[in-house]
Amino acid sequence: MVTLTIKGQQKNYEEGITYAKIAEEYQKDYDAPIALVSVNGKLRELFKRVSKDAEIEFYTLKDSVGYKTYVRTATMLLLKAIFDCFGSEAVNETRVEFTIGNGLFVKPFGFEATDENAAKIKARMKELEFREVPFMKKSYPIDDAIELFSKIGMKDKVKLFKYRRSSSVNVYEVEGFFDYYYGYMLPNAGYVKWFDVVNYGGGFVLVLPSAGEPEVVKPFVPREKLFKTLRDSENWATHVGMGNIGQLNDGICGDSLEEMILVHEAEQERKIGEIAKEIVARKGCKFVMIAGPSSSGKTSFSHRISIQLRTLGKVPHPIGLDNYYVDREKTPRGEDGEYNFECLEALDVDLFNRDMTKLLAGERVELPVFNFKSGKREYRGDFLQLGEEDILVIEGIHGLNEKMSSLIPAESKFKIYISCLTSVNIDNHNRIPTTDGRLLRRMVRDDRTRGTDARSTINMWASVRRGEENYIFPFQEEADAMFNSALIYELAVIKPFAERLLFDIPKKDPAYFEAKRLLNFFDYLLSIQSENLPNNSLCSEFVGGSCFNV
Question: 0.90 exceeded by the pTM?
Answer without folding.
Answer: yes
